[in-house]
Amino acid sequence: MRAKASLCSGAGRSAARKAPAFAGALLVLFASPALAKKEPKIDYAPMPPVYVPPPPANGSIFQASQGYAALVEGPRARRVGDPLTIVLTERTVAQKDVSSKSGRDGNIGLTPPSMGPLSLFDPAEAAASGTQKFNGNGTATQSNSLSGEVSVTVAEVFPNGTMMVRGQKRLTLNRGDEWVQISGIVRIADIDFNNRVLSTRVADARITYTGRGDIQRQSRPGWLQRFFSLVSPF
Questions:
Q1: Domain locations in the chain?
Q2: Structure confidence at residue 81 as a pLDDT band (50, 70, 90)
Q3: What pTM, to 2 d.p., does this model score?
Q4: 104-158 pLDDT per residue, tens
């Protein structure tokens, strides 16, 4: 009995020594992703323009490859590497309401015979009824607004004359950094004579507004709260 008690006490002390180490390992495991700085994913970073060989000389005085534009073109961007200003005028409002109701009633009754062994059953005990009701409502409202200007460059010119543009603007503030990234397809006809185009005229537009720093970090819940929110069934 003394040996058995000694073994039990030794196992208890061993488990007690392992408990802090296990708790420390869990703390390091969950704290490591929170302490690591996550760089924002920049998918629309400006790339060096693809070199386009100049067209052969046609004998005219002014060559488009030397930076001269035709009289009817003006200063609008139309070649790879040309800058372009996109005016952000994004505003979206979405609202959705859902309401549903359902109900079902059921009754069943059996009348036992007046003679025989089944006549001992009470008719009230051979009856059953059920009721089922459901009432659900849901409302979702979302709105966003983004305004400003972002200068981009022409990354590719398609055979039909449309252009793939992309670029970003990075702002370094005293409490963090902010990025505005945009890419999409632009028609030359939608560019005004000031070399600007509205963001609502950009096809397949992908606009990203993100940041990094104290303000961005304080707006997110802590890593432990995110963990419990993930595993909580409620």
A1: 1-36, 64-92+144-231, 96-140
A2: confident
A3: 0.52
A4: 777 776 666 666 565 566 666 666 677 877 788 888 888 888 888 999 999 989 9
Question: 3-class secondary structure for the chain?
Answer: CHHHHHHHHHHHHHHHHHHHHHHHHHHHHHHHHHHCCCCCCCCCCCCCCCCCCCCCCCCCCCCHHHCCCCCCCCCCCCCCCCEEEEEEEEEEEEEEEEEEEEEEEEEEECCCCCCCHHHHCCHHHHEEEEEEEEEEEEEEEEEEEEEEEEEEEEEEECCCCCEEEEEEEEEEECCEEEEEEEEEEECHHHCCCCCEEEHHHCEEEEEEEEEEEHHHHHCCCCHHHHHHHHHCCC
φ, ψ for residue 187 (rounded to 5)?
Answer: -90, 145
- Please state whether beta strands 176-186 and 203-213 pair in parallel, antiparallel, or not at all (unpaired): antiparallel
- Candidates 88, 208, 196, 204; CA nearest to 156 is 204
Distances 60 to 89, 127, 177 between C-alpha atoms, Å: 41, 102, 49
Which sign does the torsion angle of CA 41, 43, 44, 45 carry? positive
Q: Give CA angle at 120 (117, 124), nearest 5°.
A: 135
